[in-house]
Write a structure and sequence with these properties.
The chain has 2 domains: 6-167, 2-Layer Sandwich (Ribosomal Protein S5, domain 2), CATH 3.30.230; 180-308, GHMP kinase, C-terminal domain (Alpha-Beta Plaits, 2-Layer Sandwich). It is globular and about 60 Å long. With 309 residues, the chain is of the alpha+beta class. It is built from 10 helices and 9 strands. α4 (122-140) crosses α5 (146-153). The protein starts with 5 loop residues before the first strand and ends with a strand. The strands form 2 sheets. Strands 1, 2, 3, 4 and 5 form a 5-stranded antiparallel sheet that branches. Helices cover 44% and strands 18% of the residues. The chain has helices spanning 44-61, 72-80, 97-109, 122-140, 146-153, 192-202, 206-229, 232-249, 259-268, 291-297; strands at residues 6-13, 24-37, 84-87, 157-161, 164-167, 180-185, 272-275, 283-288, 303-308. β7 and β8 form a beta hairpin.
């Protein structure tokens, strides 16, 4: 048995800000994917995934039945026969590994599911996001539900505010374009929960709150608008500002070995770095108007191109 594939995602803009109602833009990233599977001879990873699914089943059984119900019998029986999530999505890298798993479980076992084939009204999208938020909280302690939503729909999602999300189109890629969005591999796994607690702790500080509103959210919103409009000139201006704000105010979320590279990008304008997900490790997102220059400047780093301008 092997189920349908669910893809990883990249939150291009909106990390942390969406907790406080900034805009956000999340796109599917088809380079990584996962599917539910049963093997005759499961390896160690498959066994670990199966054990985690066992705990997940108990958790799902306790969720509010008004919100969502599952065919727990079928799910339990599949888990008992060794079902696991076979995934190439790196965990703790900010590209939605638990989101893809949640989407796969909902797709196969939810009893009254909202399908991607029906007309997805704003209400339906919000309901899905709420269901996914409850489901994914098992993995993170608190989840917005966006990662599974992205994985489930396999469409770019525009977050206007907490209660206003929509599937959106993004400008088509210029395959011969010089500019690019890329991922850098920090080589360390990031844990979401501790990073979110640091953020929540900082939010108690008035200075941090006003920085978030007046700078971080302002530039994040502008980046989303620029990207969707295809206004590259303005996008890079705002991404630079955003990168600066993050370096000055989100230091704990940036792996130490990247502080200098981050600064160097801002000084040379060869590239600008930003967090990918909650940070602390995993991937870092980069934006450049000249990919060759950025590659040269980041020699020795593992760089993956996600989108070409």
């Amino acid at each position: 048995m092997k189920g349908p594939l669910f893809y990883s995602k990249i939150l291009l803009f909106g990390e942390y800000g969406i907790i406080k109602d900034s805009k956000g833009l999340s796109i599917p990233y088809n380079f990584y994917n996962g599917a539910l599977k049963v093997d005759k001879n499961p390896n160690k990873l498959a066994q670990e995934s199966n054990a985690s699914l066992r705990r997940f089943v108990a958790y799902l059984n306790d969720l509010d039945k008004e919100l969502v119900t599952f065919d727990i019998k079928a799910l339990q029986s599949d888990v008992d026969s060794g079902m696991y999530f076979d995934s190439s999505i790196p965990q703790g890298y900010g590209v939605g590994s638990s989101g893809a798993l949640v989407a796969a479980i909902y797709d196969k076992y939810a009893t009254d599911k909202i399908t991607i084939l029906e007309n997805l009204t704003r209400e339906k999208l919000l309901k899905l996001k709420m269901i996914f938020s409850e489901m994914e909280s098992f993995f993170h302690g608190k989840s917005s539900g966006l990662d599974p939503l992205n994985s489930y729909l396999s469409l770019p999602i525009l977050i206007n505010s907490k209660d206003h999300i929509e599937a959106t189109g993004i400008p088509s890629q210029q395959t011969d374009g010089k500019g690019a969005v890329f991922l850098l591999d920090s080589g360390v796994v990031g844990e979401t929960a501790p990073m979110v607690s640091i953020f929540m702790e900082n939010m108690k500080n008035e200075g941090f709150r006003s920085m978030l509103k007046d700078q971080f959210i302002k530039h994040t919103d502008a980046c989303v608008d620029d990207f969707l409009k295809g206004d590259i000139k303005s996008l890079f201006k705002n991404t630079k500002q955003l990168s600066k704000v993050v370096l000055n105010n989100f230091k704990p979320m940036i792996p130490a070995q990247f502080h200098e590279l981050w600064k160097k990008g801002l000084e040379t304008n060869d590239y600008y770095l930003k967090l990918c997900g909650s940070g602390g490790g995993g991937y870092i997102l980069g934006f450049t108007e000249n990919l060759d220059k950025a590659k040269e400047a980041l020699k020795g780093q593992k760089l993956e191109v996600v989108y070409n301008f």
